[in-house]
Each structure stands twice: as structure tokens, then as C-alpha cells.
Amino acid sequence: MDTKLTLSLNKTVIERAKQYAKTQNVSLSKMIESYLAAVTEKEEKEKQNTPLVESLMGVIDLDADFDYKKGYSDYLLNKYK
Questions:
Q1: Would you place residue 1 in the very low, low, confident or very high pLDDT band (cuts 50, 70, 90)?
Q2: In the chain, how many H helices and how many E strands?
Q3: Half-sphere exposure of 76 (CA within 13 A, CB side)
Q4: pLDDT tens digits, residue range 19-63?
Q5: Helix (H, G, I), strand (E, B) or coil at 56
């Protein structure tokens, strides 16, 4: 279901956006809808963990102040002595 949305934008931006939409053979409304969908979808994907990550979460208990980079570099230095 489509719902109307009113936006207040700079007139120059609107005119350039209309020209761009016209060259892309798409309506300005559809172009804005696609942009907003892409932005919010990307944000949602960043929040989600893969099933593998979910299964591994909580497997190791580390101190809150544990330095991951230092811990790994120390491990590598000891391994390749």
C-alpha cells in the first residue's frame, strides 16, 4: 500500500533530482523509495548475525578489558618464536 509523504527540500536539489530521475526513466517518488529501502536494508543487514556467528557467540568468556589485537599478536609471537 502506498502512502503519501511530504518532504521539504532545497529547490535546486529537487530540480536536479527530477532531471536525474527522468534520464533514468523512473519517477522521483520511486527513486526516493528505492534509496530509502536500500539505506534501511543495509542498516538491518549490519545488525543481523549469520547463523554461524550466532552459534559461536558466547563460546569464550573474556575479561571486559581484553585487548583482542594485543592478545592475537602475543599469540603469534609465541607461536613463531
A1: confident
A2: 4, 0
A3: 6
A4: 999 999 999 999 999 999 888 887 666 677 778 887 888 788 878
A5: helix
